[in-house]
Design brief:
The protein has a seven-stranded mixed β-sheet, sandwiched between helices. The chain contains eleven helices and seven strands. By secondary structure, the protein is α/β, with parallel strands linked by helices. The two termini are about 25 Å apart. Helix 3 crosses helix 5 and helix 3 packs across helix 6. The protein has two domains: about 210 residues, Collagenase ColT, N-terminal domain (Glutaredoxin); about 90 residues, no CATH class. The radius of gyration is 19 Å and the shape is globular.
Length: about 300
């Protein structure tokens, strides 16, 4: 979930590319740049079963909504210019996450849904209807809901990179990982995928990292809800991202996927760490020391 005050600021480029890229990345950029999502009436979409939140979304200014679909996603949108922009990013991030983690089997039996609001009144009405406030985007299961203000494209690519990680993650894993791992991976992968697609780093991060060092990581791994103190919540995102990056960089993607599956079954970090990373870090103390060194470089 992206809180409005923790949106990743980024410049949105209509044309992909720039910067060094592998031949595979260049091929994928070219592929997605040619995607044209096919418009269809709702009753002709390949998957029409949506959640109560989805129904609430489409019930707000119902005549404004249009629908289109591509390989893995169905998009519900209001203005023509957003359709292919979002679908192209979504399909690239799908490929990038699958490629980075060496994932082979998509467990979903239907396409995921993306709902894009493009005006304040509609987005505020959706938040009121679903009891969620002060957010820029949220993913639940196989549905991603987002606010895409017409004059603020720079915010949206950061939000979609983060939330698309959640959406794609839910297609390849059954069950939900603990909060720190869920958000930490979304932050970590958002940066990787955005840079891969656009050839540029994901802009300035509007997060207060001053409290990162004050958060006890082992206690943080037991948190089951976001923090009411916004500065602490922002530091949580940063610390979780650094921890995930350390695990992936040291152990590689295959080991990290095994770690995720273990954490989904049992969210006890020390137990999962000892099972998958003890041969690399020796013990949690060494891991925490390396994490602290990364925090000092912020």
């Amino acid at each position: 979930m992206m809180l409005r005050s923790t949106i990743l600021a980024a410049v949105f480029f209509i044309s992909f590319g720039g910067g060094a890229a592998s031949p595979n990345e260049l091929a994928q950029r070219d592929r997605v740049s040619k995607i044209e999502a096919a418009d269809k009436p709702f009753d002709q979409l390949s998957h029409q079963q949506i959640s109560e939140a989805g129904k609430a979304a489409l019930g707000i200014d119902g005549k404004k909504w249009k629908h289109a679909e591509a390989d893995h996603f169905i998009i519900h949108y209001q203005l023509w210019d957003v359709k292919n922009r979002v679908i192209r990013e979504a399909e690239y991030y799908y490929w990038k996450i699958q490629d980075d983690l060496k994932l082979s089997k998509d467990l979903a039996n239907h396409k995921s849904h993306i709902f894009v609001f493009q005006d304040d009144d509609g987005w505020n009405a959706f938040q009121a209807a679903t009891g969620q406030h002060g957010i820029a985007g949220v993913t639940t299961g196989d549905e991603f809901f987002s606010y895409y203000p017409k004059k603020k494209d720079k915010d949206f690519s950061g939000t979609i990179a983060h939330e698309m990680t959640h959406l794609v993650f839910n297609r390849f894993f059954t069950g939900r990982p603990p909060l720190w791992l869920n958000e930490g991976f979304a932050e970590y992968q958002a940066h990787n995928a955005f840079q891969s697609l656009f050839g540029k780093r994901l802009g300035a991060i509007n997060k207060d990292s001053s409290l990162v060092g004050q958060i006890d990581f082992l206690k943080m791994t037991t948190w089951t809800s976001y923090q009411s103190n916004m500065s602490v919540n922002q530091a949580f995102y940063v610390k979780a991202q650094l921890a995930v990056g350390l695990l992936v960089d040291k152990g590689g993607p295959e080991r990290f996927v095994q770690f995720i599956n273990t954490m989904i079954q049992n969210p006890d970090f020390p137990a999962a760490f000892n099972r998958h990373y003890r041969d690399i870090f020796k013990d949690t103390d060494k891991f925490l020391k390396e994490l602290a060194r990364k925090e000092k470089r912020l």
